[in-house]
């Protein structure tokens, strides 16, 4: 029988999840949708024939027969809504980050533990076919023992400065995905050294943030890593990884909208720039992560990205921030 | 207002079209589905909340408010169903080929002309982002005046011999897509020389067909082309084009499920083989061709692949067959 | 002991051979150089410290201790000089083609046979690391049984019309390399169908030649091939092969002067165009073919490209010309 | 008139330089060769017809008509031989590093300054066509203002532990090339943070060195960089750079011995592994750096890699070592 899901949040990412569940995941269906703006909830409900639209998240959580909740509302609601859903004994899929403060995260995780429900965090990039293939290569021993990891993660264009002011900054809104990717591929990190600068837009610096960073990671297994971030890659969304070990390496190039090359008397060029928009670049990953969540819940197996996987990247972002502020390597144990 | 569509045929390709219309084309909806097997029609209707399921194609065509018909039933029904739909004054999207005989094609086209409806033929590859990009490059003058065209079109594995016996053979069931691609990119062909062999499976030869071909094309504009076909490319679905002119060239590589490269002490290899299944390789194109059809019908503009575009590749297949049989170049004017 | 060589012809290709022998082949040395222009011979002799410079080819052939002769003079002298060298009992390396007429070729081959010396023909592309790797892949069974062969061979710019008038035309001066490549990779050809046009330069047509061709090959083993020629590829020297069989394929991309990609807000492009000049593109092959010749002579093993390998491509060019003239497939047995 | 050169050192790299000068640089010639082992000097002199072979470097420096000296002897002799050559008023090309100690470097540079001769240091990678193309792209503004630099520099296999013991360690014998590359591409570095480990071979750790490193660079212009080193890349010599700025990026892939791809039912792979040996990978660069040196000396223009360019990478290696030892970022001003 199809898993019955309540969706909280009918904004951009909520729509992505709704489309995934309703058109691509046969063993799940959305039965209720809540949004602070009722009209948004109603529009999404109409589009997919969802029975209940509401502006009260608890009504959605407690709608008839609901097995699981997808939390896709604004970041500050993640932790309280996790707690509400856990108390209602629902399995939970929650967008990252759980919260920006460890105590809020820990409270949410405690509620989940007490309820004995499953919690999956929306680190979607793990489910991207390209990065999943690199992970598989590592697991299969294709690179041997991991030695070095490169993560290049550059956005096509900087967000509005207003966003930067509330997001927690580059390490919390952008690098956090890369911290997760680092753990996903090479395991736990023990120490971080972050360098950064304001090279893209001075207004970002005035807002107290950086827009360019190079973050060194020391892994528990002795491997070394680096994350290279920029708020602006003019040629498109630059998302690459290279994992290197004593047996070889696995890495990827960017994805393009076509597979064309054009040659003329002046140049040989690609038919297009790399995919520019994160929803295009990572569309498959959103469907895949929900498929994995639904399957885990239905089979009673552990979800692939759990609460701790949501917590540690926040710790890493804190360590990176401290490292940048103090210009010294910072151990994660200093944060926890 | 959304275009109301009757879908005839609820098999593999009918399902693809239903999914495209119901999940990705907001300005169209399917209101009736017909299939020779009523249970197939009913299942598809249930999946998408389609009001009418029937085993009688005329019931679907004449269902309330139907504006257009998608014909995705077996090949021998294409021409009569086109005539039925035209008589009912519905716009028509029909899978290729219209028919294997020119008189049947001409009768269907005459009915369409008399009714004044639009008819689009399902040469989906024109709407593949990669081949569309090559077409755009040619249109923009990126290669200058066309000189040479290569079309590589190899299936991952041969069809059952039973299929070969009824399909009309390689030129009619496989190369026909490439004949359309040749016209799409370089314009009309005047003469064809076909060579072929039975290199993949002797049973195909015993069934009177070939499984490997090299077909030379002489275009009206003086350009030359070649189509290279095989029923079996063990590494995957091999679909490539290279257009060359006095100003340059535009070509493509195959598409892969990931963008990964793995290196070890023995080799440097791709993370995966090329996409193997035509529905994966061309999924976007099915959605795009229907989007174009719906838009053309709603805007009253010409459809991008019309009845003549459905007829000429059949003529080309006939010329290729004659050329192969007689081992000499054959002009299309010999066929018409 | 180093093989002692007399070099006949101190023009462009003669200089290439001199450089290869004198700087890269330790077990050979040039002891005499002849050129119709004594000053050219003398200049080359001075550059490498060669003892004898002469304007009489026989003096070079008969210089003290000469073991072998490299013939790099104008095409019309190849056959007579082969005969002179054979009569002097010298092993011979001769640039292609031996001659444009079969009777002259046969006379030269008869002289070689009678003398019992070795004759290697300068089909240098067999020794290019890229094409040699494709040959190796075929030999190792990497593609299984050969089915289809594509040879793309396009010059960066057309030669002077004066050259076209005396060269014998495109099939004899350009495609002849591709005929050799076809035999090298897939074995003997039985039938040829050639189509061609004058698309690059009308003056080439007025001189009685074509500048663009698409040549279909039927191999004795049942495989099919196509050679695609143009006198003008504005982006550089376009030299590619794809060999396809029931076990896979082996093919190459063009070579570039650097391995750089540059991305900006408008495009992603290669750092340079492909190598443009045949001496750059094939430099390694000239050294490798002479190394192979010297080794074969010193070891008494058969040379890798013998007299018959020099004869057959001329037959193929004749068949292609006849096919073009008569617009029908021509069997090689019609020529021989 | 050709520049007359004395070559000191007839070992592996001395032979490379001799070959470059004698076969590829027409406006220079070697007139004397010295080596501690006279037989080595004599063998090289014989191979190229060099008049003088000696085991006394001063005899070579003072040989008749010598304009310039190439120092390719062991590292500990570089500084004293530079001083000897400068005192003799000869222009100097010297292999890197000048010395492992700053006082020795400074003494050598002072001698050069006093004599008013030119000194070029053998950072050959600047002259590699691929890295030179990236530099050109930066100079032309193709990437805009530099923001981030990645240098991947991995040897195919670790050197003997005995070498590590005397080389000064990874930062001095290997990363030093990358420090030069960083300055070449992005300008001066102000601060370095180095992390490292012994992941390849424990014996290297026992010898007091590391075999794996990730080195963060802060440039004076605000850009950030990272150098990724490993003593062992099993797939070959891994030499890549990516320069990223506000206008785009320029980077390279590795170089291969052929341009072939092979596909079968299991995989799609390159025809070969990347070039494995530094002399193969960088052969062109050795010729190009000497060509530039000879041209600069003959034209009286500044050499492209001067004494200061030889000194600063040693300072950077010292800073990296200090950073690794103290696990903190180290400013170059702490060293100087």
Write the layout of secondary structure elements.
The structure is a homotetramer of 336-residue chains.
Chain A: E1 3-8, H1 12-24, E2 28-34, H2 38-48, E3 52-54, H3 57-61, E4 68-71, H4 75-87, E5 91-94, H5 102-115, E6 119-121, H6 129-139, E7 146-154, H7 161-167, H8 170-173, H9 175-186, E8 189-197, H10 202-206, E9 212-219, E10 224-230, E11 238-245, E12 248-252, E13 260-264, E14 268-270, H11 278-281, H12 283-299, H13 307-326, E15 330-331
What does this structure look like?
Four copies of one chain form a homotetramer. Chain A is globular. In chain A, α4 packs parallel to α5 (102-115) and α9 crosses α13 (307-326). Chain A folds into two domains: 3-117, NAD(P)-binding Rossmann-like Domain (Rossmann fold), CATH 3.40.50.720; 126-281 and 313-334, Dihydrodipicolinate Reductase, domain 2, CATH 3.30.360.10. The first copy, chain A, has a seven-stranded mixed sheet with strand order 12-11-7-10-9-8-15. Chain A is built from 13 helices and 15 strands. The first copy, chain A, is an alpha/beta fold. Helix content of chain A is 40%, strand content 25%. Chains A and D meet through β7, β8, β9 and β10 of A and β7, β8, β9 and β10 of D. β12 of chain C pairs antiparallel with β13 of chain D.
Name the descriptors.
homotetramer, 336 residues, alpha/beta, Rossmann fold, Dihydrodipicolinate Reductase, domain 2, 2 domains, 7-stranded mixed sheet, 6-stranded parallel sheet, 13 helices, 15 strands, 40% helix, globular
Please count the helical segments of chain A. Answer: 13
- Overall pLDDT confidence of chain A: 96
The amount of beta strand of chain A, in percent, is 15-25%
Stretches of chain A where pLDDT is under 50 for at least 5 consecutive residues are none
For the record, the CATH class of the largest domain in chain A is Alpha Beta
Q: Please give the radius of gyration of chain A in angstroms.
A: 20 Å
Which secondary-structure class do the elements of chain A indicate? alpha/beta
Shape of chain A: globular
- CATH topology description of the largest domain in chain A: Dihydrodipicolinate Reductase, domain 2
CATH superfamily of the largest domain in chain A: Dihydrodipicolinate Reductase, domain 2
Report the CATH architecture of the largest domain in chain A.
2-Layer Sandwich
Q: Biggest interface pair, residues each? A: A-D, 38 and 38 residues
Give the number of domains of chain A: 2
User: How much helicity do the residues of chain A have?
Assistant: 40-55%
| Assembly status | homotetramer
Number of strands of chain A: 15
Strand order of the largest sheet of chain A: 12-11-7-10-9-8-15
Largest β-sheet summary of chain A: 7 strands, mixed
Measure the end-to-end span of chain A: 42 Å
Order of helices and strands of chain A: EHEHEHEHEHEHEHHHEHEEEEEEHHHE
